[in-house]
Design a protein that fits this description.
This protein has about 180 residues and is an alpha+beta fold. It has one helix at about 1-45, and strands spanning about 50-60, 60-70, 85, 90-100, 105-110, 110-115, 120-130, 140, 145-160, 165-180. About 20% of the residues are buried.
């Protein structure tokens, strides 16, 4: 009889540890599902057509222009419901990183090629993240004002005055307002 009672506390301990682990894992899953649903809702809220002021900085000189911008939900194989594709003269795949009641902060996911030929570049350019100006992120969305801001860079080759080639980096800062 003594051997049966010796193993019983160990079995009870294992049972309680397993029950606690199961409870903690189910709580984490609910939180993840809730965060995922909130991101999906925000992506749908942010997707749309914007009119944008873009400031282009090349070699210390700035110029402003106004361009239409799209924020679209990419196809499912590119992350679908939880990501946004910023589409203008350059494309950028973005992901929601931080959510506050006033703003949504996004990060840059991958280097892309510019969508259309660039006037300053030979053979196109690569889209890269710009300066992290918005609380440490490259993009932010103001939920009340419906304004999207993003900082990007284009890198590629350009011709010099004597016909040679040199590297060129163009800093782009977009301030886009939602078109209702």
């Amino acid at each position: 009889m003594r051997s049966v009672y010796r193993g019983l506390p160990l079995i009870v301990l294992i049972f309680f540890v397993g029950a606690i682990a199961l409870f903690l894992s189910s709580c984490g899953k609910e939180d993840k599902d809730k965060a995922k649903a909130e991101k999906e809702t925000l992506v749908r809220e942010m997707a749309g057509v914007y009119t944008s002021e873009v400031v282009r900085r090349i070699d210390g000189q700035s110029e402003k222009e106004y361009v239409p911008v799209d924020l679209v939900i990419p196809r499912e194989e590119n992350g679908g419901k939880h990501r946004l594709l910023f589409s203008s003269e350059c494309g950028a795949l973005l992901e929601i990183e931080q959510i506050t009641p006033e703003k949504v902060f996004l990060s840059f996911l991958e280097v892309g090629e510019a969508n259309r030929p660039q006037k300053d570049f030979i053979g196109g350019a690569k889209t890269l993240p710009g300066e992290a100006k918005f609380s440490g992120y490259i993009a932010e969305y103001d939920r009340q004002a419906k304004v999207f801001r993003i900082s990007l860079k284009l890198e590629g080759k350009t011709t010099t005055e004597n016909g040679g080639r040199k590297d060129l980096t163009v800093a782009l800062e977009y301030t886009a307002r939602r078109v209702e």
